[in-house]
Amino acid sequence: MTGRMLVVGLDGMPLDLLRELAGDGIMPAARRLLAEGRGVELRAPVPEVSSTSWASFLTGANPARHGVYGFVDLVPGGYQTYFPNVTHLRAPPLWERAAGRRTLCLNVPGTYPAPETGGVVVSGFVAPSFERAVRPARLLEPLRRRGYQLDVEVGDVAADPRAFVGRVSAALAARALSFEYLLDTEPWDLAIAVITETDRLQHFLWRHVTDETSPLHEAVLGVYAQVDACLARLVERCDGDDGIAMVSDHGFGPADCQFHVNAWLRQEGYLAPREDTPSLAEVDERTSVFALDPARLYLNRPGRFPRGRAGLGDSFAEELVARLTSLRWEGRPVVERVHRREEVYRGPLLDRAPDLVVMPAPGVQLRGAFNADAVVRPDVFTGTHTRGNAVFYLRGAIADTALPDPMDMEDVAPVLLDRLGVPAAVPVGGRG
Asked: Do the record's keywords include Hydrolase (predicted)?
């Protein structure tokens, strides 16, 4: 099937919540779409962070092929880190694979600095420079006139959560105006427009999303109604033959506690004391294992690291898995499971993968800060990512036959390319 394709990204939107808000009439445009197509559960890659998930969305590949394992990755051969961006993708993104189709890629995380695609790119977070986040540069001034913000100004949410809701609403309003302008004035075959305000709201105010007795509940629901109005206006810009999809990069749930993995590793003697290793660069042979955010564990083995520690074989990894899965906080499990890298990653960059990836139990947010001084401590975040319960939706008859349920993020790009009439290098479920 050929024709244009609109993809609306709802960052962090859980499928259950989308269906609930649609059913309750808060998101009527979403309700109409769900009645016209098929929505299935989408599973994020491991770990369930936006940088990794959107990279898989763009490429149809897992991290061992596209090369993005998290918001921070290790420079091979040592302890130095870097922040991955679009230049680090090692698999072709959608705008390359949809050659000959003009693409609008708007606010997709991990697309900074905006590359030359022959279409339009407005980079999503992390994007430190507005000038380098927009291509072609002639669009900078129209976006500024519409008050476009690369991200929501968080501010002091704890002190004034209602003001934060106002900032979210203002950023979303400007983003919606800008999306409409670009879809109206720029030719496109594939348009991807990501709304990140859902993620920001849920991280800081998840309790107010779900608690009907909260004094902020109605204000928070108002943001979802605003998201729905944006969705409706984007859909209005489509013709009857155009494909429409919705996607979220991960699900969401409550964060009842923040568990700091490196603090626990220090406490248990696996990571040298903080006064001796104030940064990752100071790690030496006394350290057996360290974590990168949120809970990617790297065994400090000789050969991979310059100051590796001998004797860190399979039995040590098994010891870590057993100890982590037995952890309890206030009688509740902290860890749901621990993946070995071969279980979740496939591809030529497997040697860059973490050795183990820890998956949190429900209600737990795992954190990889290197200098945390407590294993469990409060945080301003009240919501956290989940790997499951993300959204993929496709309008039209093709959705009835083409969508597995549940579906993996790697499958999204092949589905979109098929809808555009572009042969995908790897079919749905192919896991190439």
From this structure: yes
